[in-house]
Sequence to fold (264 residues):
Amino acid sequence: MKGIYIPDYNCAFITANKSGSRGIINTLTMFFDYTNINYEKLVGSNYDTKSDVKYYILVRNPIERFFTTYSWLMRDGSKISDTQFDIIENVLEKYNIKTIEDYASNYKNLYDALEFDTHFFEQYFSFIPPPNHKNNGIDISYIELKNTFDSFFNNYEFVHIEKLISITEDYKNSYTLHDDDYSNESTNFMIDLFSEFNELSISQKKLSNIFYTYIIQILDLRHHHKIKTNEYKQKYVNVITNKYMHLFKTELMLYGYIDTEKIL
Fold:
């Protein structure tokens, strides 16, 4: 888990690996530095939640994240430490993982085999306190998981990372060049997703969009496996969602990507 606690605003942001964590945490730290808002960093799952603090839990669509973790698993071995490379090679050989469907069909088996790397676990493993539900894996029910979050967090809200991306993309596209001038249409601000900061000035709010756009562009240049992720998704998204939806159903319901009332 990676996160930031904002004492003066009585709220915190937490997120997990392979959920856009680096982008959002770097954006928020840069934003709070420039706006002179004090913050404290949160790292790992051994943190004490405060009953009077609002926790914004930033999550990514589990299906989208599935393709990213597969790309991460199959990435260039030269980019991995020798120890991790040996472990990953052994796992790939043990479960005969050569395709994305091999990965999907062995998804649950990979928990223990790759326990050194939280990139491969569901996002909720990063948020609930130890001992968590690692041994149950994808067998945990939505109700049990929801009750765990309700008991651990007095006040929390899941925020889809895709909303942040959409807002900053719209903001970037709202600037239309006309010769030497530009016009800026009305737009939304990323920081407005979090009500505690609604009273900030327009100039301050603009910084949240600008910083997030900048950070994402920098990370995109560094993430050598992003192109492969998009290739996997375009080619296999229908197969994965049709054949392996049970892998993602609990998370999709918990985070609000699908309507629980229509399923339960």
Summary: The beta strands are 2-6, 11-15, 40-43, 54-59, 156-160, 175-178, 181-184. The first helix runs from residue 21 to 34. The CA atoms of residues 31 and 101 lie 40 Å apart.
